[in-house]
Amino acid sequence: MTEFLTTREVAALLRIKERKVYELVSENAIPASRVTGKILFPRDMVEAWVRRHVEFREGTEGLVPRPAVLAGSHDPLLDWALRESGCGLATFFDSSLTGLQRLAEGGAIAAGMHVYEPDGDTWNRAHVADALAGMPVVLVEWARRTQGLVLPPGNPAGVRGLADLAGRRFLPRQKQAGSRLLLDHLMRRDGLDPAALDLIEPPARSESDVALAVADGKADAGLAVETVARQYRLDFVPLFRERYDLAVWRRDFFEPPLQTLYAFCRGPAFAARAAELGGYDIGGLGTIHYNGA
Description:
Radius of gyration: 22 Å
Strand content: 15-25%
Order of helices and strands: EHHEHEHEHEEEHEEHEHEHEHHHEE
Mean pLDDT: 91
Distance between the termini: 25 Å
Number of helices: 12
Largest sheet: 10 strands, mixed
CATH architecture of the largest domain: 3-Layer(aba) Sandwich
Shape: elongated
CATH topology of the largest domain: D-Maltodextrin-Binding Protein, domain 2
Structural class: alpha/beta
Number of strands: 14
CATH superfamily of the largest domain: Periplasmic binding protein-like II
Number of domains: 3
């Protein structure tokens, strides 16, 4: 087949009738182009659409449902709200980019992420648009959070920023984590040599692991959200205000699990918990920052 497919070729590829292809086009549910005066379909985007998100059952035109799983980066407030709301969502917390990959491959209905994009001075949008090009995915704000240095109680070394960590044991996150990507950006922004840090191996798989290592004296510092430092009674030096979003498969956003979660988050208990944890701004909860085709 050529780079661009006709309606008949797409129907043959998906093993459906041409009428169904036209229906998908009218619903903006499949990547298509009308720039030539007729409908053409970029082959690579159609194949990605099938591979990552949609499967047609043999002999039917139904969609295979995704598992009710929320993947991606861990957030303490989100973790609490998922339990307290009784929404029924399971979790597979690991990192922002692995969560996005799991969402793209059909292994979750949503992924939490906080990936800074310095080119646009924004968060998450370009990564979602690239990984899920042409897909019906929305990027919904969860909260603004304070990221910074987690330090031993009392900050005995008098650390005020990244420049004061030269030669000190620093526990990084894995390369797919939003915290690790932010650390790399901050080091470049401040003109600091990453080699100056004494990076501990292996990297931490969660921000709680960072805080625990500092609390146990196994590391002198790490990067995490303010909430985690408070939970472990550690010192904290704020460095950056970030945005944590949920990338959500649009159809699932309107299903009971996520609607139950967001209904709970509009109540007073949620606001009280955010204030208690510290370092959160939930004023933008529910704001849509990206709405895929």
